[in-house]
């Protein structure tokens, strides 16, 4: 069963489908709105709908042909070039409701402001098992101690990153790897911050105003904070600059993380990220990275959340 919300925006009644992406054992996942368009609406109308829906992102999808779709993504306060969990949600719906020929490993395309990207829908017994999305080519903007426009030396930068998370500066970094905070994009620019262990990750007390300031100065969407515990990657994501204090599952941020860990020879091929533990919304994100690029994905569900 799923819920369709009906928004009346400027006299236009719009059907909004609510889904969750990156679910883990049927639980968790990140909510996204989806509007399937049969005609164009204005950017202002899209923004008003996204604000009314109130989820971290709402996707607006329009079919172009049998394999291609135009997709735009809006937070409650602005448009973003790409959104991983809203993409997974949108193409889960496409795979379940709009595709008639449910072949194994179906390949589609989405046209986004981050470029034309491939989507892979995997079926099991004619039902969507999972969705994987190609990420934009990784772009590395350097390690955080190279950014002197905010502070004057490495120690101060590390201290300010730590302060913005409410942790001690000694907790920034991984226990078994020499890796620094870095700025990376596979569609959206994120500040990727390693912390020493899972306990530190879970005890973060985000200072949202400072996170917003550091993000804005570095022209990033927000922070993706991660650790590696017994081989398992755990993460938290903070993007108050675009109106999202914390998300329980993020696709593009984990794509950027995959690109960084591949560059650092820490991970390659397939791995999983668990996110949302402190939000009681533990979610699972699949990442695949090699010399050819990055894909992220996971499971999704059409769910009933609330009436607007």
Characteristics:
single chain, 308 residues, alpha+beta, 19 strands, 40% strand, globular
Walk me through what this model shows.
Helix 3 crosses helix 5 (208-217). This protein is 21% helix and 40% strand. The longest helix has 15 residues, at 84-98. With 308 residues, the protein is of the alpha+beta class. The protein is globular. The protein has helices at 43-53, 84-98, 154-165, 198-202, 208-217, 251-263; strands spanning 4-9, 12-21, 30-37, 58-63, 68-74, 79-80, 106-112, 115-124, 127-134, 139-143, 182-185, 189-194, 222-229, 232-239, 244-247, 269-275, 283-290, 293-298, 300-302. It has a 19-stranded mixed beta sheet that branches.
What would the principal axes of the Cα set say about the shape? globular
Mean pLDDT: 90
Structural class computed from helices and strand pairing: alpha+beta
Helicity range? 10-25%
């Amino acid at each position: 069963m799923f819920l369709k919300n009906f928004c009346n925006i400027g006299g236009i009644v719009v059907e909004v489908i609510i889904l969750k992406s990156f679910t883990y054992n049927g639980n968790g996942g990140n909510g996204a709105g989806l509007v399937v368009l049969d005609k164009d609406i204005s950017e202002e109308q899209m923004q008003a709908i996204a604000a009314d829906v109130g989820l971290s992102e709402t996707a607006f999808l329009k079919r172009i042909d049998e394999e291609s779709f135009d997709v735009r993504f809006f937070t409650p306060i602005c448009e973003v070039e790409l959104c991983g969990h809203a993409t997974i949600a949108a193409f889960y719906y496409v795979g379940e409701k709009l595709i008639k020929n449910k072949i194994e490993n179906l390949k589609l395309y989405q046209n986004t402001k981050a470029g034309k990207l491939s989507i892979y829908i995997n079926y099991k017994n004619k039902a969507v098992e999972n969705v994987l999305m190609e990420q934009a080519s990784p772009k590395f903007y350097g390690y955080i101690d190279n950014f002197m426009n905010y502070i004057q030396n490495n120690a101060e930068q590390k201290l300010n990153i730590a302060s913005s998370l409410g942790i001690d500066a000694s907790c920034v970094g991984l226990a078994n790897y020499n890796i620094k905070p870095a700025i990376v994009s596979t569609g959206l620019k994120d500040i990727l911050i390693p912390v020493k262990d899972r306990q530190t990750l879970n005890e973060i007390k985000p200072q949202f105003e400072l996170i917003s300031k550091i993000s804005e100065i570095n022209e990033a969407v927000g922070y993706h904070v991660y650790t590696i515990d017994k081989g398992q990657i755990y993460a938290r994501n903070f993007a108050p600059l675009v109106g999202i204090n914390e998300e329980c599952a993020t696709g593009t941020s984990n794509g950027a993380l995959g690109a960084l860990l591949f560059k650092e020879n820490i991970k390659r091929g397939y791995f999983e990220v668990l996110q949302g533990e402190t939000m009681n919304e533990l979610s699972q994100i699949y990442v695949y990275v090699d010399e050819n690029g990055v894909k992220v994905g996971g499971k999704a569900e059409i769910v009933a959340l609330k009436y607007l």
